[in-house]
Design goal:
mainly alpha; Hypothetical Protein Ta1238, Chain: A; two-stranded antiparallel ribbon; two-stranded antiparallel sheet; 5 helices; 4 strands
């Protein structure tokens, strides 16, 4: 089977279910950004040695694929694809709480950076926030995606805490933002 079909050469693509829509449709933007986030998490994974974090990130990647599948379905047709649920959101909250127990209290805004995996976790966080904005735009068009929005909101929190956790594990402090002082 060839990877190219030439079906998208005129700026259209197919949803699961067959309906053709523009490649710049808000639905395509939403699941395309989820795909981008998943790829960034894959890049983060290759820089992580902690097996527990790797397992959690792998689980998150699978849930993002579930979300992408849901968003890629034609909303006018009834489809059976994996769905996220409240347990998936609880999973993230538990991970956040476990990591925060080991971290110093956050008293300042922090800058992305410090080390490669921490900086990559921040890239993942910002792409996750964009994915959340895209999904809420899809909701504005009438799509029902409340659990997906909640999951992405919690995931961005997880990625922020993960960046701090990674730095802390490496014996590094957060990079503190020092705003320009007013004169």
């Amino acid at each position: 089977m060839k990877i190219y079909t030439k079906q998208g050469d005129k700026g259209m693509t197919s949803l699961i279910g067959g309906r053709r829509i523009s490649k710049h449709d808000v639905r395509i933007e939403a699941y395309g950004t989820i795909d981008e986030l998943n790829s960034h998490i894959g890049l983060l994974l290759v820089h992580i040695e902690n097996k527990n974090i790797c397992n959690s990130l792998f689980e998150i990647q699978n849930r993002l694929f579930d979300i992408g599948s849901t968003l890629a379905c034609d909303p006018q047709k009834s489809m059976s694809v994996p769905q996220i649920d409240n347990e998936d959101i609880n999973f993230l909250e538990i991970l956040i709480d476990q990591m925060e127990e080991t971290l110093p209290l956050l008293k300042n805004f922090i800058l992305p950076g410090g080390n490669l995996p921490s900086a990559q976790a921040h890239v993942c966080r910002t792409v996750c926030r964009r994915a959340e904005r895209r999904v809420t735009a899809l909701e504005d068009e009438g799509a029902s995606a409340q659990l997906i929005v909640q999951y992405l909101n919690r995931l961005s929190d997880y990625l922020f805490v993960l960046s701090r956790f990674i730095s802390n594990e490496m014996g590094m402090s957060d990079v503190i933002w020092s705003g320009k002082s007013s004169k």
